[in-house]
Every structure is written in structure tokens, then in C-alpha cells.
Amino acid sequence: MDLKRWIALIAVFAIIAVSAVIGFTTAGTQTEEEGGGFFGMADEPVQERTIDAGTESGKIAVIRIEGVLQDGAGGGIFSPGYNHQLLLDQLEYAAQDGSVDGVILRVNTPGGGVVESDEIHNRIVELRDDYSKDVYVSMGSQAASGGYYVAAPADQIFANGQTITGSLGVIMQSINFAELAEEWGIEDNTIKSGEFKDIMSATREMTEADEEILQSIVDDAYEQFVDVIEAGRDLSREEVLELADGRIYTGSQAMENGLVDQLGNLDETIDAMRENLGRDADVVEYEQGFGIGSFLNMTADNIFEQRQVNQLTDWLNKNQGSRLLYLYTD
């Protein structure tokens, strides 16, 4: 192990030691049963910090939805990125906190997996309907495809005039190099139990029957997308179908078409929610929990951020077979 790695490792252990001392000092006689945790360090999956102190009771929780919506994409203290389970935990945390009156989703994503998008959407609907929380969306630089899917059930959607949104639709892609393989004398030996077991194989041409099956799957996911927009927005199904042809819109165009309610940034979204609530509530932002368990569960790759290895692993994870996606790709 080289000197740089030894220094990084020593720094990590120093942080652990300092955190433990702080934990003992602040916890006093607090026990684990009282919520102190090991060494007095809370090991909750979600923690909050105040980003704008109000003068009255209640809280507005800001939850960030950033990056490609893909389960298992990673994300951690030393390896930031989209973390699907953490996001679901944050939505649940806001739902269960009786002092939270409203939630603002800061959406900055091109979308991602159909399943992941739907899981987030369902949690947001539950937050709004079952827990009676106001839900606003503040769109960042992009909130396209699955990014719009998760935004659709919000009470109010704000966007910058130049936000890239839309891309309302479904995509499934693969690469086929059957002709190239034949040209180079590369032979694929596949043993399968049924005609369509190797559907979308990269080593054989797609048949009409293959395409018909896959198109039916895409169409089914597309109908679900249309259902979500129709239910969340004041638009008829015919209007949604006209808008949902896969094209992208700026925030200004989206507002003209009824996909967005107002133009404004995050601060203006916060102001609007405070006005709607009728009081100057605290604004808090949710973050990943940070405790001794987080250290114990880290791998060497998390600590040292071997970027090339992580990028390769991420690419492989994203390309493990064809996936059904609510995703905008440029």
C-alpha cells in the first residue's frame, strides 16, 4: 500500500476516533435504548439539516432526486450518486414525521428504470394522499422522462424556463452485431428452452415476432406513463397523448402545454409553499445518515474512490441486458 493510501486510511480512523469522542461528550448518560447509538453516534438512514430557519412551527422537507434512477447504482458518503433505497427512505421519513407539513422534491434527473420511477411515484402519491402532505416539485436543469413521471402527482410543479423536461415515453435498446460477427467468422452457440429465450440477443437478427413482443411491452409501459400524467395533471387523455410523443420541452414550453404550473427556482418554490401553508416554517434538507455503521459497512473502494473501477462497474451494471426505461438520452 502506497503512502497516499496509508494517509487516507489514517484519516478515516482519525475521523472515527473524533466522532466517538464527540459522541461520548454529547451523549452523556444517554443509553442506546434512548437513541444514542453506538458511541453516541446516530446511525439512522436519514438525517436532516436546517437550510432556512423559519419563525413559526412546522417544517418543509426538501428531498433531492438526482442522477439516473437506477436501483443498485450506488451512492454513499465517499461515493456520491443516486441511491434508490435512500430516496425511498427519505420519502417514508417525511411521511412519518408529524412536524413535516410539506415536501419539496428537487428533481434533476433524465429518468431511469420503469420500476424505480414507479416506486418513487407511488411513495409520492402515498405521501400526498395518505399522509396529507403538500408536495411541490422544483425542476432543476432536467426533469425528463422518468423525472417527469415522478413529478406528475405533485400539487404544484415549478421549473426554470430552460429546464429540459418532457421526453414522455418509453425506450428499450440493444446493440446487434450479428453481421459483423458473421463477417469476422465469430460463431455464437446458444442453447435455449424456447424460441424467444434469447430475444434481443446481440448475435442474431431481430425477427418480426421478436419486435412484436417487445413493442407490446413498451406499449404497456407507455400506457402506464400516460395514466400517471392524466391522473396527476389537469389534462385530458387526448391532450396527454398529443404531448407524449417522446419530444423534449423547455420549462417555458412545458408550462404553455400544462405540464408545469409555474416558472421559478427552488427559493421561489419554498416561498410558494410557505405562503400556501400560511406560516414561516423551517426548511430542512434530508441527507444520508452518518454513523459508525456507515464506516463499518464501507469497502476499500468506497473509501479510496477508485474512480476508473467504479465507472467501469457502473457501466456494466447499466448494460446487463436490455431494460425498459423512462429515460431521456441525448
TrEMBL record:
Domain Peptidase S49: 131-276
Keyword terms: Hydrolase, Protease, Serine protease
GO terms for biological process, alphabetical: proteolysis
Signal peptide: none
Molecular-function GO terms, alphabetical: serine-type peptidase activity
Domain of life from the UniProt record: Bacteria
NCBIfam families from the UniProt entry: SppA_dom (TIGR00706)
Similarity comment: Belongs to the peptidase S49 family.
Name recorded for this polypeptide: Signal peptide peptidase A. Serine peptidase. MEROPS family S49
